[in-house]
Design a protein that fits this description.
The complex is a heterotrimer of chains A (about 300), B (about 270) and C (about 400). Chain A contains 14 helices and 2 strands; from the N terminus they run ααββαααααααααααα. Chain A has helices at about 1-10, 15-55, 70-115, 120-125, 135-145, 150-155, 160-165, 180-200, 205-215, 220-230, 230-250, 250-255, 265-275, 280-305, and strands spanning about 55-60, 65. In chain A, strands 1-2 form a two-stranded antiparallel sheet. In chain A, a hairpin with a 3-residue loop joins strand 1 and strand 2 (about 65). Chain A is globular, with a radius of gyration of 27 Å. Chain B is mainly alpha-helical and about 270 residues long. Chain B has 12 helices and no strands. The two termini of chain C are about 40 Å apart. Chain C is of the alpha+beta class and about 400 residues long. Helices cover about 25% and strands about 35% of the residues of chain C. Chain C folds into 2 domains: about 5-225, 3-Layer(aba) Sandwich (Rossmann fold); about 235-389, OB fold (Dihydrolipoamide Acetyltransferase, E2P), CATH 2.40.50. The chains are: A mainly alpha (about 300), B mainly alpha (about 270), C alpha+beta (about 400). Chain B: It is a multi-pass membrane protein. Chain B: It is found in: Cell membrane. Chain B: Keywords: Cell membrane, Membrane, Transmembrane, Transmembrane helix, Transport. Chain B: This is ABC transporter permease subunit.
Amino acid sequence: MTTLTEAPPAAPAPQTPAKAPRRRGRLTPYWLLLPGILWLLVFFALPMLYQASTSVQTGSLEAGYKVTWHFATYWDALAEYWPQFLTSILYAGLATLFCLLLGYPLAYLIAFRAGRWRNLVLILVIAPFFTSFLIRTLAWKTILADGGPVVGVLNSLHVLDVTSWLGMTEGDRILATPLAVVCGLTYNFLPFMILPLYTSLERIDPRLHEAAGDLYARPATTFRRITFPLSMPGVVSGTLLTFIPASGDYVNAQLLGSTSEKMVGNVIQSQFLTVLDYPTAAALSFILMAAILLMVTFYIRKSGTEDLV
Amino acid sequence: MPVLLWIRRHLVVLAGLLTLGFLILPNLVVLVFSFNKPKGRFNYAWQEFDTHAWQDPCGVADLCGSLSLSLQLALWATLGATALGTMIAFALVRYRFRARGAINSLIFLPMAMPEVVMAASLLTLFLNMGAQLGFWTILIAHIMFCLSFVVTAVKARVMSMDPRLEEAARDLYAGPVQTFVRVTLPIAAPGIAAGALLAFALSFDDFIITNFNAGSTVTFPMFVWGSAQRGTPVQINVIGSAMFAVAVICVLAGMLLGNRRKKQSV
Amino acid sequence: MTDDTTRGDVRLTGIGKTYGSFTAVHPLDLTIPEGSFFALLGASGCGKTTTLRMIAGLEEPTSGTVHLGAQDVTALPPYKRPVNTVFQSYALFPHLDIHENVAFGLRRRGIKSVKKQVGEMLDLVQLGDKAKHKPHQLSGGQQQRVAVARALINHPRVLLLDEPLGALDLKLRRQMQLELKRIQTEVGITFVHVTHDQEEAMTMADQVAVMNAGRVEQLGAPADLYENPGTTFVANFLGTSNLIEAEIAGQDGDTLTLKAGDGKLVLPAARCSAPTSTGGKVLVGIRPEKISLAHADDAGEIPTGRNRLTGRVTATSFIGVSTQYVIDSPVCAGLEVYVQNVERDGRLAPGAEVVLHWNPEHTFGLDAAQAIDAGVETVETDAKEEATS
């Protein structure tokens, strides 16, 4: 039936169908790409250019701004706000470190030890996302509240003495101290560390662990020589996914910190939305972007996982 | 001694469970405090059990309005980003073309950029163009930053697809459109669904980019942000917990459905 | 047996493994002599890999003990056992190059200068020029040799091989069988080899333990197992056997007389593993290549004293060096006969009436209480035919 009805039209037209799809095929990818790429060009790349231009403008909100190639804005911004830059990098770095230390055991647990509970634990890792992160961050205000159980326990264990000696807390409170901000950052970006770690751990053939054990490696050696090196792609992408958003964050500093824990994100936000000093805000945001791109490039080179990107 | 030995053997498990507790704890606090009856404007200290907020979740001015706005935004942003992102993903995996490297970078960069940088630069653009900040500028921004994530999710799925399946379909008399609709799309569907879910979650929960580009429009995260300054109504916790419950139920139902389907197909 | 010869033996005593209600290995006793090439043969899920992993220390036995010579190693973790494993699909460390993979065990034991040893070991497996390569740059056969080198360099008391050739194609597998055998002869270490390939086990091993459903069915040298299988499982799993139901009619000295249908068969009493009381049921076994075929017209030319059966050819297949016949006999349908293609008798086409005859010495008797088709392979038949050709 089908061969009878379809054979005649196919016979006289062997050339046109052979050519037409190829010509169409050549343009198809561009049609597919066009809308999305255009969107990114106009609303991601172009704004960067606008921002670059804004950062070298002078003027005022009332009189309007003009491009005057006023690069001094960058120096002024750096000179005034370098402590916030440092704070950002320090807090983001600490949060990344804590995420790695906290996240690795959990990722390891899900990948190798969870058995049939694996999916459940994975869901529990992702589940917090289902509640708005602002609400959850506010919950830390309750958890870390002055005189609350967490403060009480840490105080009686003299942990707070150590942290206050390190300059992370003040007296017997955690809220409105650097520790609270770092804790909030750690909490907020922890899943971004756990998931890539889990993905790369899960890919490791468990027989490699057995083989290492068979070749006289103790469990600790097996971890150091086999498991950890093989999970490096996860470590790298996890630290990037944690560090980058954490360094630009201003929510945690605002909600959990005091004025002395301001990060560069807070400055950019207030310059843009409150002070309305657009050139300074643009310059700051540009410096942040450049700093992060530099660090990320260096880090990826260093860790030898360029194929990640 | 056996206790110590047991602890040593299960150290990883114990540490992992502690981390899990750290992750879940705030959600529990949110749930518990949705039954609180705070004194004063802030809901940070436990006073007494009360269900008034659950009985009247919209009892605070603008709360449910902002929630419905956020849902609408998330819906449209998901649709837009999923459509555009899926097209890009297919183009990247299935075709060869010029400037592939540049396009890959353009897709990667938004994910490697602190939100505040994107937010600020986008605001500069809107200010320069004299755009009216509001629903549309938020939607544009959301589609922009969700796009890359959708591309990544769909790409992963399409890449793992055997191209011979499509060849087989064509060999079995399916035209290009039929091949796409009957074979390609169903197989890519899980990737597209994952991308769409991710986009929805990202858009619904976005604060930083929205805060810069919303003007006077108030989305749900912005409402929460504002309330952190003015006073936090218990209803926020109610809505947070309810969302959590709905999402967990959806995921569990999806898993059960998936399991049953798997069993049937075996 | 003196102390000297038993020093390096692997002794499994009552070793068993259960997972919940499932018994992977029934408690078994096994002694693997030092320096031997020992194969654990069985279909997948028969418990052979579990047994191997219990020797390696990767699996904790539910009962029993593992001794290496005089030392009880049952409680030792794998990294403290002088035993090394060649894993199924090799488990080479993907982030380390070949040199570091091979040096891994030495370094873990605190040996600093490994270069010379690794070089020698790589030469032994003929991969001296691949030291700086990463595992994924090597072919399957080369990876396999690296896995062997990585284990052997530690001079283990026992080398355990878990389906080491399973991932290789047939030709390479044959080559690697000879290669492994050469290495074993060269280093003289005890090899315990787990495989589901009966060909492989018979080519390589001095001793084969055939396992089925968590038990050792039969243990012995390959030729003994093949020529005189003790169970239907071994008869069918190792090569092909024709099994004919028969009844013991009487005993005459060392030989049993059997009645199969109308026919009369003779079986040496020593080759019967079933009870030999008159009137008892036995399964008479005969390998297909031991049987000769004669056309019914030539029946008179068959020498006396041979076992005979009549039948009709139902199918033939020409294999090259031999021809395989399927013959329906009144006593048993579907008998297989392999005949060397020395002088082909053109009359032996399907439908031809034939007489099967063989030397009674090749007959074996099995207990009729067993399932007659235990161990019959359906998938691996191709490989077997190729092997016999």
